[in-house]
Amino acid sequence: MSIIHTDKAPAAIGPYTQARWAGDCLFISGQIPLNQETERLVEGIEGATHQVMKNLQAILEAAGLSFSDVVKASIFLKNMDDFQAMNTVYASYLDAERLPARETVQVSCLPRNVEVEISMIAYKG
Q1: Of 100, 105, 81, 79, nearest to 90 (Cα)?
Q2: How many structural domains is the chain composed of?
Q3: CA–CA separation, 53 vs 83, rounded Å?
Q4: How far apart are CA 58 and CA 103, in angstroms?
Q5: pLDDT attached to residue 87
Q6: Is the pTM of this model over 0.90?
Q7: Which residue from 9, 24, 40, 99 has the highest number of Cβ atoms inside 10 Å of its Cβ?
Q8: CATH number of the domain where residue 78 is located
């Protein structure tokens, strides 16, 4: 099992990796809206979701994959009232013909008190 790391996405802030291969599956750790270049959090659900998706995209690309290879996504929202705005941005990154399975849940708190965190599983088939 090999580890994926890219400088184009935030480094792990704890005892975990950005992503790890297990066979043909890539498990991507939850990404928060941290802009790697500025080292600042992006606020506002739309901007935050764009930043999370850019972080996920950078990790996928480092592994030689794309959003079309994603088979499962887990979305954690601080406020379910942000669902529609998040969903619109999230959908803009995906191929409507190859949508992943997904769940979205509201949580009471996320790392650094962000509004959204998304993790993914991709399959290289």
Answers
A1: 100
A2: 1
A3: 15
A4: 22
A5: 98
A6: yes
A7: 9
A8: 3.30.1330.40
Say how far apart CA 76 and CA 106 lie, in whole Å: 6
Distance CA 36, CA 55 (A): 8
Go through 13-24 and write b for each residue having 16 or more CB atoms within 10 A of its CB, e for each that does not.
eeeeebbbeeee
Q: Token pair for residue 3?
A: 């580890």
- Mean pLDDT calculated for residue range 77-92: 98
Cα-based torsion angle of the residue sequence 10, 11, 13, 15 in order, rounded to the nearest 10 degrees: 140
pLDDT at 12 (0 to 100): 87
The three-state (H, E, C) secondary structure of the chain, written as one string: CCEECCCCCCCCCCCCCCEEEECCEEEEEEECCEECCCCEECCCHHHHHHHHHHHHHHHHHHCCCCHHHEEEEEEEECCHHHHHHHHHHHHHCCCCCCCCEEEEEECCCCHHHCCEEEEEEEECC
Evaluate whether 89 touches 42 at the Cβ level (below 8 Å). no
- Convert the pLDDT of each residue in 36-74 to its tens digit: 999 999 999 999 999 999 999 999 999 999 999 999 999
